[in-house]
Specification:
By secondary structure, this protein is an alpha/beta fold. The protein has one domain: STAS domain (Transcription Regulator spoIIAA, 2-Layer Sandwich), CATH 3.30.750.24. It is built from 4 helices and 5 strands, in the order ββαβαβαβα. It has a 5-stranded mixed β-sheet with strand order 1-2-3-4-5, sandwiched between helices. A hairpin with a 2-residue loop joins β1 and β2.
Length: 113
């Protein structure tokens, strides 16, 4: 898994490239904590290039949502892969997130929150 991280003000975008699974969840969690400690309260997760996610990855993404909401922010999803969409629907968490077609739409939604 590769993470592309971009911060702008209180918003941080993470583009996940590759599988999010138990072996690389610590890397994702470290990026999340780094973003929060640097002042990000809004997290935008671009999941277009994430072909697979396991239960540990799902837990990490739900944890990101919980952490950002604890500090008055939110976590948005951008263009989740079909596998991610089906998996999130199956476990009943897709409705917890704002889902957007583009990163800019997600950024705009954070700005008006």
């Amino acid at each position: 898994m590769d993470l592309d991280i971009k911060q702008s003000g209180n918003t941080c975008s993470l583009r996940i490239k590759g599988q999010l699974k138990s072996s690389n969840v610590p890397e994702f969690d470290a990026a999340l904590e780094s973003a929060i400690s640097s002042g990000c309260i809004y997290l935008i997760l671009d999941l277009e290039q994430m072909p697979f996610i396991d239960s540990s990855g799902i837990g990490a993404i739900v944890n990101a949502l919980r952490r950002t909401r604890q500090i008055g922010g939110d976590t948005k999803l951008v263009n989740p892969s079909s596998f991610a969409t089906k998996t999130f629907k199956m476990v009943g968490i897709l409705s917890l997130f704002g889902v957007f077609a583009t990163e800019q739409e997600a950024v705009d939604a954070c700005a008006t929150a």
